[in-house]
Prior knowledge:
It is built from 28 helices and 29 strands. Strands 5, 6, 10, 11, 12, 13, 14 and 15 form an eight-stranded mixed β-sheet that branches.
Amino acid sequence: MKIAVVGGGPGGLYFAALMKQLDPAHDITVWERDAADVTFGFGVVFSDETLGGIENADREFADTMARRFARWTDIDIHYRGESHTVGGQGFAAMSRKELLALLQQRCRDLGVDVRFSTPAPDAELLRATHDLVVGADGVNSLVRQSFSDVFRPTLDRRHNKYMWLGTDRVFEAFQFFIRDTPWGTMQVHGYPYSDTGSTFIVEMHEDVWRRAGFDTGEEFPPGASDELAVERIRELFAEELAGHQVFANNSKWLSFTTVRNERWHHGNLVLVGDAAHTAHFSIGSGTKLAMEDSLALAACLHEHSGVEAGLTAYEAERRPVVESTQRAAQASLEWFENIGMYAGQEPTRFCFNLLTRSRRITYDNLRTRDSEFADRVDAAFAASQGLPSPAPAMFQPFRLGQLELKNRVIVSPMDMYSAVDGVPGDFHLVHLGSKAMGGPGLVMTEMVCVSPEGRITPGCTGLWTDEQRDSWARIVDFVHERSTARIGLQLGHSGRKGSTRLMWEGMDEPLPDGNWETIGPSALPYGPGSPVPRVVSRDDMDRITAEFVAAARRGAEAGFDLLELHCAHGYLLSSFLSPIANKRTDEYGGPLVNRLRYPLEVFDAVRAAWPAERPMIVRISATDWVPDGNTEHDAVEIARAFIAHGADAIDVSTGQVTADERPAYGRSYQTPFADRIRHEVPDAAVIAVGAIASYDDVNSILLAGRADLCAIGRTHLYDPHWTLHAAAEQEYRGAEWPVQYRAGSRKPPTSRTDAVRPRLSLLRADAADRNVHLRWTPHPAQRGKGIQLPSTQAG
């Protein structure tokens, strides 16, 4: 096979070497526009899994690499005058220049034609003259640009500035140096790559970079470094350098660009490495991903007959792995973009926050890596809450206004669409009663509608009649009598999303008959096929406000402990908040302060009617997930306004405001929005919700300070006793089991295997999310503690 490789970086060279080994008859040419000795950066990091793949594919090359590795197992975090060491990580790194030299030599030994200082021919010409063309030409790929209409790339330029430097200070572990400066927070990512040097990456938000005077506007030619900035960095980080030098190598200020492509191959042309995708350096090396791509591509081409079949298999195999890595990388880079939010956080909690930023490391696997540090995290959390014992964070009590919750787990509101004329029946009694007996601190109703026209579907519950109130009182009494949980009422009005079928008959689809008129702030339908709502008038506003007040009073009479005003998910109050649904030109439309006006009017009226000693909270959609919609910055201002009006907490959800939304789904994907509100809105208690599926996630969110409470929905449908089961799996004996169920609360493991199974399952789940295979190896006798697990830069 005649193969053209465009780009002589690690990905392109490694692919060429692998293919030549698989079949020496392959005619392979590599074009590289730079000279052989031109590179940037200093060290590259590899995970154990990547090294295992390299070893399986080419033991000789793997052994050559291994002789040059710097290895370490600890992470040191330096913050506000304190240093914390966390062990059990497991890293390897080497000089990028050495790696390139080894790969170049390997290609020469195998007979690959590598042409340095030679731009590649046009990609279309290469496609016509070669059986396979591999675009390995980096983040600014010309190959990708030549076929952008096919690959359909998106290039997301991020908000931080960073500079890749080196130092002759040889670190003994991965280093995070966090510095508070007069201009804002700056951080250094440092790690050893040989016995003579370390990588030293300086990073800061672009606003900090400008305030610090780094924005000189000067352009530097290829190969030249920003020497003035380097000298300034030497001065700023003299303490961290400890008398050692810092070196430049094509070092200039960069903004990280996240590259994604809808397709990675076209005919006989395929992209690998940074040409296809990028992942922020804070969770691992782009070199690592590129070499993994090359290994998978070579294997797929070898295992399948025909180039098209091989390329299809490669993309199918690698895309889920890369997208998982990119999700983690996105969470990590956004955390560092917002690092200034955490400037006041207690040091131990800050360190835990940093380590768990991408959600790949959680509390439980951190405890497995370093139990001593996990104990310190528990103690710091308990101390911050004024609590005497470091119980699992999810089981620590919380005071919401004047309401004491026994733990921090909430059964999230979930519409059941099972009422008759708005009256909750036996189904709701069993549904909510079983959840309350399952151990959470708070159980929330579904959205209870304030009028028949305010329903989403004919099966929605309401509180516009005394009959509905009395039926709710029966449920509330059961929860209070049979459990120690509290029960909250969520009140809302469907707005333009009303008059639809039951969820299982067609979610958001209009009723075939028996429709009622829908209303909204503007005459804009929710989505294709949705009715055009009538525009809400001033009289409508007054009437609907009165309906909210009447429903709140009935809720208080029914005995609910808490009221949540539903201002999320595109229902009436939410649609007033969103610029996507609200195009009014009066005092209730336009800027956010106007769009807030009517929801705040309703809040104030309900707050006045609701008993003062019972808390009132608000659920919001923190982003609309569409261009020109509300963003996380708007969410902060919305939350700030409701807190100023007396809300006791903000329940932070996202989206469902328009059918055109494009959510970035993933594990705990809404938690960053809660995190931002918690740190930017003083005195705001915050509830996180959205794809929080494990007790480990709950503990991790709470310990990191990303939220005060966690609301969990679908998981409670799967297991109504999820909270009690979480207590048993964590061997926490403080959970209150119903007396009838206590015989099942302490079932002893039948074997040693059963005793460790919950933790092994957790580790396997962690590995699956990270797309690795666990390899149990002894911890090296260096500085660390615990056992070594596969890792990707503590993300």
